[in-house]
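ENTRY TYPE: paired fold submission
RECORD: A
CONTENT: sequence, then structure tokens
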Amino acid sequence: MEAIIERCAGLDVHQESVVACAICGSLDRRPTITVAAYGTTTAELLALVDWLEALEITHVAMESTGVYWKPVWNLLEGHGFTLILANAQRIKNVPGRKTDMKDAEWIARLLRSGLIESSFVPPTDVRDLRDLTRYRKKLRQDATSEKNRIHKVLQNANIKLSSYMSDLFGVSGRAILTSLIGGEVITETALELLVHGRLRSKLPSLVEALNGRLRRHHRDMIRFSWDHLCFLEQQIVTVEREIESHLQAYREKVDLLSTLPGVKPTAAAAILAEIGPDVKQFPSAGQLASWAGVSPGVYQSAGKVKRVRTLPGNAMLKATLCECAWAASMSRDTRLSACYWRLVKRMGKKKALIALAHTMLRIIYAMLRDNKSYEEFGPDFGTKKRLNHEDRMVKQLKALGYTVSKVA
């Protein structure tokens, strides 16, 4: 392997230890290899920094091992090193004797030869925003789980409110649930004070739906889930305030992404937290799509193209894009909606959803790169392009002397 870096180091990171291998020397001579081991406490990691600085190391590479690489990265980040985070699957050593020292040396040798492709690590403020958006999504999932538990307990008690209420956790539903938890006897007269809007026309049906076998055990189970749900909803509000404060510097980018059909400000913040406000770290839209896991896989051998699934990619970004794609498919008179329903005819809804997410991510890449809002071309955008292609083919055939007629 040809060397291109004079002074570099590879780190084999574990939960309790870090093994470092430094390779120093001119590119045309045999280098000097130095190995050292440190702990993962702050004092030990600062000693590692001093050791690297004493050897005048310029480049440092490490594997993305769980979350153990993060404290090491955070301490090395502000000391002038060029940090490279490697995908562990792409730098596997050849089979043989495996030790921590050999792993660190292998990483250092690959780094010295420029054979390690760096993974995307956003700056600190974007990483903080990413933690908040991911935590908000987790809180919402937990809140949905608690709502489902309440639905389950009501069904066990033969309370059929969900048969007559589209949203059990709206204003009227919450008032009824509070009364049930308190052990009140809900009559039609009392129900008139609890429900609002069109539900007033369903009062007799609601009274009948409440005529179940609600025991104290059921009330206790509902109360446990209800208290947890209220706590989760308050936490969501608090986290959203934190997200808004972190988004002040990127408000223009969020407003830009929100012009895309299917992308609400909440989804725009999540997308921005995953890919960052500057997409220059991705050389092309295709590489960004591959990193997100929405790019079609390629598996060709002996001239045959075989079936292959998409890569996992960034799970959070992929899920957010699929949600946005589904919302965009429901929009009216848009290019994205028309694209989705054209794809559904030949590949089914699931594959069409991934394909639309791929298209939307390419559009997002262009919007952030050029700092331009989304421009709607209408539902006939793809059709016009196909017709133009047909017109060109007809002209070419006529130029060769063929007579072409279109069959209706």
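RECORD: B
CONTENT: sequence, then structure tokens
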Amino acid sequence: MTTLSPLRTAAGAAGIAPVINPRVLSLDDSQCSQAVLTLAAQLAATAVQRDQQGGSAQAEKQLFRQSGLLHLSIPRKFGGQGSRWPEIYRITRYLAAVDSSLAHLFAFHHLQLATIQLFGSEQQQKHWLTHTIERDWFWGNATNGRDTGLQLVREEDHYLLLGSKSFCSGALGADALVVSAPVEFGSQERVFLALPASRDGLLIDDDWDGFGQRQTDSGTVHFEGVYVDPGDLLEQGLGTPRATLRTCVSQMVLVQIYLGNAAGALSAAVDYIHERARSWPGSTAEKPTNDALIQLRLGQLWSRFDAASALAERAAERLQQLLDRPQPTPAERGELATWIAEAKLLSGRVALDITSEIFETMGARATSSRFGFDRFWRNVRVHTLHDPLDHKQKDIGRWLLTGEYPPPSNYS
């Protein structure tokens, strides 16, 4: 079942009530569960208001720094907590049920740290990861694979970055960035590099204006002759099956955002029905919780959510297994990509349905802007357009008919 180990004991010990209905979504009883509960409660207090206002949530990003959760994916040998990705994904899912934008930033921060671990030398990993801990850095990115407006130009003993990247989640207000650029002009191959966000010539616009995920700081980054030392390039293992696991890590982040919003919507609906809903005149039930039609609809939505969550858990565990191996095989990587496509397809479709259909169970009063229940659908609708779900469905069908796995790319 999706409800993992209930958090009532941990929450009671911390004096914090879970902000998500435990019947819908809970966390493992891990060492960081109290920190997650505390952070979720802090985010929930202003989540609706901030979603409506948009802008950059720099104060809330500071709460992440104070929580210690930015160090989760950093190996213990560099001073981090060495948490496994299935746990990080569960935390992302829980936080996304409360505040989808900040969960997005949290997960993308860890995606950049994974990039350093996948592509960086031991010396580079030590440099960037220890700096992250010592200075409580929050990482952003400028890695949009479809944006070809950035060039990495070779000079005598260094490089220059010229151009721009759009849709750079977490870039605004970040302490450091992972950037991708073509290895040469017109090339489809790209190289990753790590840079402090304060480097001269690096400018970040606050121009993200999507109707969902409003506080993901996903502006455009401009590079006006930004200096790049050869040591900034992350070039270990390029072209290997293990290197392509970065896309798998990224795609699984999206799955958690979908499921988190779906869980937030279900939790909101259950609580609203208990506390505010009224029985429809045509219903024979004395109270909405006993209304057979409401039970029927929520039962269907929950079952689909639970199935999507199970696929996500399966894929996350397999991803971790391959990350733990020095060199997974192309077939192992291909099977994982198929599992992730299944999880992403089902979670995306289910989340779109749940975040829309909850209103059928709550009624017209639930559309009041003061509740902000519409934010769950808006967030999912924007996020599911990152790369088309139809292509995931096609990849699954092709594998079923031909045995061909999704080819490694920026999106599979």
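NOTES ON RECORD B: The CA atoms of residues 169 and 218 lie 4 Å apart. The chain has a mean pLDDT of 93.
STATUS: closed
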